[in-house]
Amino acid sequence: MRHTSHIRVDLDAVAGNLHAIRHVVGSRTRICSVVKADAYGLGARRVARTLIEAGSQMLAVFTPAQAAEIEDVSANARILVLMPTRELPQDPAIARMLSVGRLELVVTDLDQLAMLSSIRLGRTLPVHVEIDTGMGRAGVHSDMAQTVIEGVREARSLRLRGVFTHFSSNEPDVIAEQSARFEQVLAEITDLLPPRVEIHAASTGPCFSSPEERRDVVRIGLGWTGSLPGDLDGRQATEVGLRGAVGWTSSLIQVRDVKAGVTVGYGSRWTTPRATRLGLIPVGYSDGYPSSCVDPKDPHRVLVEVRDGLRAVPVVGMMNMDQLVVDLGDLDPSEPLDQSGVVLVSEQQDSLVSLSRVAARAGIIPHQLLACLGGNVPRTYLAEGGGTLVRPCSQQVEFDDRSATAAG
Question: Which domains does the chain carry?
Answer without folding.
Answer: 11-233 (3.20.20.10), 246-377 (2.40.37.10)
